[in-house]
Design a protein that fits this description.
The complex is a heterodimer of chains A (about 450) and B (about 220). Chain A is mainly β and about 450 residues long. Chain A contains four helices and 31 strands. In chain A, strands 2, 3, 4, 5, 6 and 7 form a six-stranded mixed beta sheet that branches. In chain A, a hairpin with a 5-residue loop joins strand 25 and strand 26. Chain B has about 220 residues and is of the alpha+beta class. In chain B, helix 1 packs antiparallel against helix 3. The radius of gyration of chain B is 21 Å and the shape is elongated. Chain B starts with 8 loop residues before the first helix and ends with a strand. Classes of the chains: A mainly beta (about 450), B alpha+beta (about 220). The interface between A and B is medium-sized, with 36 and 25 residues.
Amino acid sequence: MNKFVAIVSIVLGMWAQLSFAALEIEITQGIDDARPIAIVPFKWFGSTESPPHNFAEIMSNDLTRSGKFRAVSVEDMPELPTDHRQINFEKWREKGIESLVVGSINEVSNNEYQIQYQLIDLLQDKGQVTDSKNNLFPYLLENKASLVTGQAMRKYAHRVADSVFEHLTGIKGAFDTLIAYVSVDYEDKYPYRLFVADSDGHNPRELRASSYPIMSPTWSPDARRLAYVGFDDGRSAIYIRDFTKPKAEKVAAFQGINGAPSFSPDGNRLALTLSRDGNPEIYVYEINTRNFRRLTEHWAIDTEASWSPDGKSIVFTSDRGGKPQVYRVAANGGKPKRVTYDGNYNASPSYTPDGKKLVLVHRNEQNVFHLAVYDFESKQTQIITETSLDESPSIAPNGSMVIYATVHRDRQVLAAVSTDGRFRVKLPSSTGQIKAPSWSPYLN
Amino acid sequence: MSLKYVWKPVALAISLSVLAGCAGSSNNDGQSNTTDSSVQTANTGGSVDTGVDSTVDMDAIDGQISSIGLDTYSTTSVDGIRDDVLNSLDPSVRNKLTAAQQQEIINKIKEMQRVKAREIFFDFDKYAIKSKFQSVLANHATYLADNPNTRIRLEGHADERGTPEYNIALGEKRAKAIAKIFMSYGVAKSQIEVISFGEERPAVMGHNESAWSKNRRVEIKY
């Protein structure tokens, strides 16, 4: 996968400014039981004053942004060990801290660094360090060393954060992932720009700049392709960008709407919206054969198709009942059945990875647009955001968080919320407006 | 329905000699009186022969038509606008208008409405056309039917509320609702291109009903 990221960086080239900034994470609602963790600054052995990246800070921000952890600041650390043998367990436990990451970065040659780290479970300590072999330390959950380049260091920090997250929660981490999004700046010659950035907003890479809108970026399940909607002279078209190729391929440019693409779980098909036959209808496009198969047939609006994780069903938005509601249809055709009944606006549905719920846009009784979670079993709809004008929800591959677009201080910004609604963060950008986020699948 | 425009000084000056006492709408008596007296002064001191009426000054009526506000052109029928224009004339002038001149006034109102009124507005999450826009749409439709070589683009838009993909569909439904009306007047399908930008290209920035109401629109682009 390192190779894949390198290709993206080289081919896309441009390092633009417009990104949502990780260092400006604004936690609008924390969780009381977020677990205290300390990522001790990694000891630096090198020719410069500091390493290329602040490894511990990248990890701390990742873990804090998950809502499951509260990374303590350096000032609150009783000591700064770099190896488990230096730890005074009692001091940390007095601070209520449950786990600890310590490590070091060693510059072994030009642009090559050995990064060593250990994950310590402070609650498992018996206070008896007797041997240098890992398996004899019940508190030592991980002890690893790797060689990385300066360019790969941020990515490696995200991977270590993923590993720590998985050790402590049992859930695979989703920090080493990417977010695609669209920036809008009406003052710009090309107001609409499509970017792919790291999950913390760093390293934005520009894919397309246009005087016409860019919409609906969405990832293939292998994260090697991105489908999106562009407009040529005002006429919409669906593109697929394969990151191993230099240019995007236009796959649908019929008269009318070409929109709302969504990859099937096997990556071979694309559900999308076309109005070439008069009304916006859902179609399934077979990527290899380039064959379009129509799935819905109704004079009303049908759009925003999204696949179930098993690939057997497609949910979509339709106003065939008078107001936008979510419907479900078998992926190989059939009669759509209405899913949502709660409220008069439910749209933009997507399945959680376990297939048991839908995240969607829901208008409440005060006419405010929030994100909500619909549970197939209980048939209940639960609002999970407190922001307004919420749209474009996209679920992290581990199902823990949803990134979406909202309006904050008169600007469109990204925000994220845990799928249980208990943890909420804003991801403000430095300039312009940001919308249409799409969270990539796992990269490995 | 009364006109919501005010007289332009230029139009007023030109019309003084012929449209005696016509200035201002009926709910503007104070100004009318002032104008009356100045007209009297002008007439007595000038070279106009009070015994012989001059011809109707169509230029002055043109000025009046071009000064009518956009809202009136967008939401008032051509006949309604004509009646308001005629009612604002002095009866002695109005009665002298020939049928051809009356038709000329109507044609000018139509043309001005077609040039000016190119946005049709909608209610939230609706693509039904409000009755107040029927006149302006009929006017565009008649023109297009009479000019089969003229092509237009109907650009559908939505406000920012709701989801971007649904709003693209909503914008297209709105534009197609207008295309359907045009075709019912005999406009050829090939004259019309329908495009939707959904919520992606707002006409007015802002996150309130004032902005939203102006963004839920179809733009008629010649």
